[in-house]
Amino acid sequence: MEMINTIGRRKAAVARIYMKAGSGTITVNGKDYKEYFTTANMQLSVADPLKTVESESLYDIKVNVKGGGFKGQAEAIRMAIARALVQVNEDFRTPLKGKKFLMRDARVVERKKYGRPKARKSFQFSKR
Prior knowledge:
There is one protein chain. The chain is an alpha+beta fold and 128 residues long. The protein has one domain (4-98): Ribosomal Protein S5, domain 2 (2-Layer Sandwich), CATH 3.30.230. The protein is 33% helix and 23% strand. It contains four helices and five strands. Strands 1-2-5-3-4 form a five-stranded mixed β-sheet. The radius of gyration is 18 Å and the shape is elongated.
């Protein structure tokens, strides 16, 4: 198996991954993913596509991620890994699609409007 390159996006985060056959290590921006993502739910989010198709220790994954916060970055990595697994084996598509790992979640924060304190919140109305 040669190296597979895919991209994943979520909110403002963009993750580029390079996957090849190996021992199952995941490095994010030069660090181990458990060191980069300190909370357990984000670590699970990154490793979830591999667990879904039972291939945790088959591939080495190198990730470059930038933009957004930690949650957006973790979900961008999850999407990129799922896309790479589908390129490896087309049979992985149905379980990954069932968990919505291949779907781009395009929801972003709504911009602040002028004359308001936030995007939709208004200042308190005073009749007199």
